[in-house]
Write a structure and sequence with these properties.
The structure is a homodimer. Chain A is mostly helical. Chain A is built from 9 helices and 3 strands.
DNA sequence: AATAGTTAATATTTACAACTATCAACTTTC
DNA sequence: GAAAGTTGATAGTTGTAAATATTAACTATT
């Protein structure tokens, strides 16, 4: 048995996740329906949340409750993540990719037929994993621009 | 007398602007207080709106009413505009610039002491003028990244 | 096989952001 | 200089996004 604590490992059923976050179960489902989070699913289609999922959700809650950014606002912000630079997709990938065009939905809410992302799991993609907060998104934009330091 | 129609020319007092947009005067003042718009001011401190201001405001209204993005969401989105690439500020400018750090407020809501923006009027800056809609912001991010076509 | 927890879907509640109204002091217009 | 319009500020209203409750069918646990 692995005793290593893995933040990515799905461990919490929805009732526990809701309790830990202090919100209701339908709210968690809504965040998922809106594309803000992609929880792992069991073989019987039940949601299982990891420690990282909880961190992500706390970040989302802060955006909603403290920063007063609406869910659609968060989605729009996520849609601005320069995913093409993170996954290093090709020019032809970009040409057909719906996510590349969108400024309303995060890229991980799209199918990606005929792109480098086609058979990848967005849940394990850096775009989804690393850029869940606004600050890190701006940092990424800084990095991809021609900035020295 | 110039007969040329200049979209940048301030011409509408607040009552007319409000009527043209179908909103109340206090709402227009609120958008300004939130930093979404910078109307021209007369010598007696009265607001005067240009055709471009109205276009900008229609864009903001669409974001709020149709896209359901909250005002703070719009501010956060504006804060992600890579202004440093537009105004071509120096590394030392960036080091001290509050706007460069922020992911909550658009750059034009900050003072810019000791930067290239110090004595410039944000109202006439490309950052403010050209990137009032989400789509154009993503296009700018695309342009500054190492994308070919 | 019985109990507890989950699913998706719909209906309902609630908190508050967005907006409006009103005010006395000031500016503009004719 | 009188009438009309604007200023910032405060108080009040309202539409609806966000959150919750409830349901019958399903999955997991003992």
């Amino acid at each position: 048995m692995e005793a290593i604590k893995n933040k990515r490992m799905p461990v919490y059923p929805i009732s526990i996740a809701a309790k830990l976050l202090g919100i209701s179960i339908p709210t968690l489902r809504m965040y998922e329906k809106e594309g803000l989070i992609i929880p792992h699913k069991s073989s019987g289609n039940q949601r299982i949340y990891s420690e990282m999922d909880l961190e992500r959700l706390r970040c989302i809650r802060r955006a909603i409750n403290e920063s007063k950014i609406s869910i659609n606002g968060i989605k729009s912000i996520y849609s601005l993540i320069p995913c093409w630079e993170v996954v290093k997709c090709s020019e032809s990938d970009r040409k057909t990719c719906n996510a590349f065009q969108s400024h309303e939905q995060p890229c991980w809410t799209f199918n990606h037929p005929n792109t480098i992302c086609e058979n990848r799991d967005c849940r394990e993609c850096d775009v989804y994993e690393k850029y869940s907060q606004c600050g890190s998104i701006k940092d990424l934009i800084k990095n991809i621009s021609g900035i020295s330091t």
